[in-house]
């Protein structure tokens, strides 16, 4: 089997059917209340065809493509919505274990952690990067999360290269996209022109190769591969934002900077940025008892460094000021993540910008601090 | 011999009764609650009255009359734990709007014989009058949270009642943000979670029924709400809803007078 294949758009259904026959629950982008979320899809017609998104700080609108244009046929011309695949691998709420009072003690029962065989369809390059980040956190460290790891091992990934960038995207400057460079089973590039609606397919794994054996394909011609490369290049060119490559160092040397108070004046501490971030992994646990105290269970749920209780120790929260909480978040993402996990904690997906109700922009905050340094050097201040 | 059940009392001050009803609304769990506590005083459920002292008192309503100000002290004196429930008891409620106008003017405009009315100039939360052991927010309170507070109290643990924003509750539930996708005004970013995501899940902005979040930034939210089209007057009214007398919202509304 050649490395890059070409399939017609109707073969997407064959892929979905093939995965379902293998026992996978196929999950992909769906329209929900004016945005795109990942949920169960059973047919190609579940995909939000002919939509593109407008994204800016604190602003998201899904708009139909021009019905007379080629894009009206497209399956993947929008980029990412509020909820990432994190939701399925690291659920927002989860029971960890249960305990029952017994004579003179208690008996522990582990939670059911039977993994769900999921096939994720339409995983963007920034999201593959985010999965790799969470893999490092949850399954490659000294303390692996067995639930995450077994779920992840049973997950089949069909990536999609972006051929259009959103207004808050900056994956190109984070070197995570818009082209998927691995970590997938199959990777699609949507081609739309007068010759029809087709997909280039790159095979990334043995299970991916096996699945393609059920699909009607032919070897992609060099001009088709070039067309796909150009389409992804268009996404690079239309990228809404960029992050400075020295962001981590800029923040490290500006632990005390007036910008922290400035951003805190705008920040709502609502925690939306961390909830939508595909790499944020913080959680808290709580114990819940039955009314009669005979049973107890421990639950885990997403937490955020923007919540005051997050840093609560005896006597009060460590990061009482919003400035300290914002600084904690951004320096962890862009500076200390490198030391902790060997990569950036940011993949350039832009969700924290779009879904911030007041549109605080991680790239602009870094740029503002850098600009102030330059102003000092040039004697303007 | 079965252990003695703690005695529970439910008290009403100035309020609509909706929060007390949340306890009766615990249909599936009500029998278990009745097994765990002795319901000693709860006029909305039974006319039977067992004399104090009480182990747990749930207090609904705000303090709006001299009589109530005196009665809440008696309730406190005979309660081991006093838990206030609902926006009236924890912030003064919707009726705290009266705090913004001279009492005589209001009473005169409503009652034919104002001289019959013995009211305080303000509607205030219970905490302004007596020591409170726990405040459960909401207009009305969420019955699951009420059960959790009773459950935690009976089992000697801290109640799992979140202090974070409504936005966190939206995101945990997978609700789509109405402010970002539709430009609808929403008080969620400055409001404490707990309602169960009621309004945003029905495609409406949050009305702050659960009161301000732990550290609300109403100034920043107001800037955004103005760009979404709200004028000063609408902003003033927006902060003057069910929890208008919570200090953060009271101050925020004054910024737009």
Keywords:
heterodimer, A: 381 residues, alpha+beta, 2 domains, eight-stranded mixed beta sheet, 25% strand, B: 257 residues, alpha/beta, Rossmann fold, 12 helices, 5 strands, 11% strand
CATH class of the largest domain in chain B: Alpha Beta
Strand content of chain A: 15-25%
CATH architecture of the largest domain in chain B: 3-Layer(aba) Sandwich
Question: Helix count of chain A?
Answer: 13
Using only C-alpha atoms, the radius of gyration of chain A works out to: 23 Å
Number of helices of chain B: 12
Strand order of the largest sheet of chain A: 3-2-8-9-10-11-1-12
Order of helices and strands of chain B: EHHEEHEHHEHHHHHHH
> Mean pLDDT score of chain B, rounded?
95
The rough form of chain B would be described as globular
User: Residue-averaged pLDDT of chain A, rounded?
Assistant: 95
* Overall number of strands of chain A: 16
How many structural domains does the protein architecture of chain A include? 2
Structural class of chain B: alpha/beta
Please name the fourth-level CATH homologous superfamily of the largest domain in chain B.
NADH:ubiquinone oxidoreductase-like, 20kDa subunit
Helix content of chain B: 25-40%
Descriptive report:
The complex is a heterodimer of chains A (381) and B (257). Chain A contains 13 helices and 16 strands. With 381 residues, chain A is of the alpha+beta class. Chain A folds into 2 domains: 222 residues, no CATH class; 131 residues, no CATH class. In chain A, the strands form 4 sheets. Chain A has an 8-stranded mixed β-sheet with strand order 3-2-8-9-10-11-1-12, with helices on both faces. A 4-stranded antiparallel β-sheet of chain A has the order 7-6-14-13, with no helix packed on it. In chain A, strand 6 and strand 7 form a beta hairpin. In chain A, helix 9 crosses helix 11. Chain A is globular, with a radius of gyration of 23 Å. The model of chain A has no long low-confidence stretch (mean pLDDT 95). With 257 residues, chain B is of the alpha/beta class. Chain B folds into 2 domains: 148 residues, Rossmann fold (3-Layer(aba) Sandwich), CATH 3.40.50; 89 residues, no CATH class. Chain B is built from 12 helices and 5 strands. In chain B, strands 2-1-3-4-5 form a 5-stranded parallel β-sheet, with helices on both faces. The termini of chain B are far apart. The interface between A and B is large, with 45 and 46 residues.
């Amino acid at each position: 089997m050649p490395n890059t294949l070409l399939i017609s758009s109707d073969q997407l259904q064959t892929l979905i059917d093939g995965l379902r026959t293998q026992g996978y629950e196929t999950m992909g982008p769906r329209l929900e209340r004016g945005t795109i979320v990942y949920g169960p899809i059973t047919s190609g017609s579940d995909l939000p065809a002919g939509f593109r998104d407008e994204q800016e700080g604190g602003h998201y609108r899904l708009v139909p493509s021009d019905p007379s244009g080629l894009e009206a046929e497209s399956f993947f011309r929008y980029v990412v919505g509020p909820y990432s695949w994190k939701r399925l691998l690291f659920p927002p709420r989860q029971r960890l274990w249960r305990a029952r009072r017994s004579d003179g003690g208690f008996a522990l029962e582990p939670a059911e952690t039977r993994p769900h065989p999921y096939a994720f369809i339409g995983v963007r390059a920034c999201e593959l990067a985010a999965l790799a980040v969470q893999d490092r956190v949850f399954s490659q460290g000294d303390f692996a999360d067995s639930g995450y790891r077994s779920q992840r091992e049973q997950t089949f990934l069909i990536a999609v290269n972006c051929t259009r960038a959103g207004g808050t995207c900056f994956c190109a400057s984070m070197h995570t996209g818009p082209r998927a460079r691995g970590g997938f089973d199959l990777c699609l590039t949507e081609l739309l022109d007068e010759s029809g609606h087709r997909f280039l397919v790159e095979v990334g794994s043995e299970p991916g190769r096996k699945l393609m054996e059920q699909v009607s394909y032919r070897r992609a011609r060099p001009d088709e591969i070039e067309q796909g490369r150009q389409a992804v290049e268009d996404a690079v060119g239309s990228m809404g934002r960029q992050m400075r490559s020295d962001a981590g160092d800029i923040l490290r040397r500006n632990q005390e900077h007036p910008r922290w108070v400035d951003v805190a004046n705008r920040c709502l501490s609502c925690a939306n940025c961390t909830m939508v971030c595909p790499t944020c992994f913080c959680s808290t646990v709580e114990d819940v008892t039955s009314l009669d105290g005979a049973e107890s269970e421990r639950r885990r749920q997403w937490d955020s460094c923007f919540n005051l209780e997050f840093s609560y120790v005896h006597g009060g929260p460590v990061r009482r000021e919003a400035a300290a909480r914002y600084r904690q978040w951004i320096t962890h993402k862009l500076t200390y993540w490198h030391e902790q996990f060997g990569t950036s904690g940011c993949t350039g997906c832009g969700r924290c910008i779009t879904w911030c109700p007041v549109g605080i922009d991680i790239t602009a905050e870094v740029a503002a601090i850098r600009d102030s340094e330059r102003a000092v050097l040039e004697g303007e201040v | 011999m079965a252990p003695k059940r703690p005695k529970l009392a439910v008290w009403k001050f100035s309020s609509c009764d909706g929060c007390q009803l949340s306890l009766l609304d615990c249909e599936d769990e009500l029998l278990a609650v009745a097994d765990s506590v002795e319901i000693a005083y709860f006029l909305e459920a039974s006319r039977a009255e067992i004399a104090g002292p009480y182990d747990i008192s749930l207090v609904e309503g705000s303090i709006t009359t001299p009589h109530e100000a005196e009665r809440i002290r008696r309730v406190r004196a005979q309660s081991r734990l006093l838990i206030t429930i609902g926006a009236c008891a924890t912030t003064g409620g919707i009726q705290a709007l009266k705090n913004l106008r001279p009492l005589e003017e209001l009473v005169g405009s409503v009652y034919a014989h104002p001289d019959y009315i013995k009211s305080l100039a303000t509607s205030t939360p219970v905490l302004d009058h007596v020591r409170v052991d726990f405040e459960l927010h909401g207009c009305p309170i969420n019955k699951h949270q009420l059960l959790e507070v009773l459950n935690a109290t009976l089992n000697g643990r801290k109640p799992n009642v979140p202090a974070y924003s409504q936005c966190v509750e939206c995101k945990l539930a997978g609700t789509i943000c109405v402010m970002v996708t539709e430009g609808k005004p929403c008080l969620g970013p400055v409001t404490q979670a707990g309602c169960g995501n009621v309004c945003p899940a029905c495609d409406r902005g949050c009305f702050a029924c659960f009161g301000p979040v732990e550290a609300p930034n109403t100034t920043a939210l107001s800037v955004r709400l103005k760009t979404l089209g709200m004028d000063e007057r609408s902003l003033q009214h927006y902060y003057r809803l069910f929890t208008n007398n919570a200090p953060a919202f009271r101050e925020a509304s004054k910024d737009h007078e």
